[in-house]
Amino acid sequence: MKSGFITIVGRPNVGKSTLMNKLVKEKVAIVSDKAGTTRDQIKGIVNIGESQFIFVDTPGIHKPKHLLGEHMTNVALEALENVDLIMFMLDGTQEISTGDMFVNENVRSVNTPIVLVINKIDRMTDEEIEEKKKEIREKLGEFDEIITLTAEYAIGIHKIFEVAEKYLSNDVWFYPEDYYTDLPVNKIVVETVREKILHHTKDEIPHSVAVEIINVETKPAIRKYDINIYVERDSQKGIIIGKDGTMLKKIGIEARREIEHLIDLKVNLKLWVKVKKKWRKNKKFLDEMGYGK
What we know:
The protein is an alpha/beta fold. It has helices at residues 16-24, 67-78, 98-107, 126-139, 158-164, 185-200, 234-241, 246-263, 283-288, and strands at residues 2-9, 42-48, 51-57, 85-91, 114-119, 145-148, 210-218, 222-231, 266-275.
């Protein structure tokens, strides 16, 4: 038996969480088209034969503008250490940016093998893929290997396992055979509610929303969650609640269905929206929400 930890890193919104979910074949990380969706390390566990692959999804590495951003970047950078392999992911349809170069500087600051992953090759010709590889070598340098894939449609993700297998360094498994993540159920509940908010609200909402369970009550046939949703401005509160509460109701219904599927129990969600001005810069509040250093 062997196992290893593989960190997936990159700038925001290149497809890291989508790749994680496809690798695990379960919904582990919440996904949206908004940058900065992932805020913590999330582990996805895949067992193939005698090998256990422990993938670590991370927030996008970026230059932070507030304390929440600092937390997210620190979480990602910490995930570069004490792992067997770093998978540095790029969006192949975009030019290599200063953000990609910033990630590159950080991944090269640790003594860990680095494999570069080019995502979204379904939108590229063979010639464009070769040009992208050339651009990578010129701007980012050489890598141990380069993998091309499309995370959204699971095209080429078998290559991840083929390459990662070579780097597994432990002769024990860290998780039981039936685990696909180490996230507590309550954390998945919080993230599910946040994902539904991201899907249904405008661009000004995503970075400004935090979700907290304030009470859980479990009965034989049903589990009840009381949940606070925090935003920074009254206008954001109005958007999430919607006219006559329609938006909040829609968010609650979709989250409840997904959570019920996860825990195999009837679920009752009570959602409240509260304004907490400038919470992303409030260290005490961030600590309370689990976003402290």
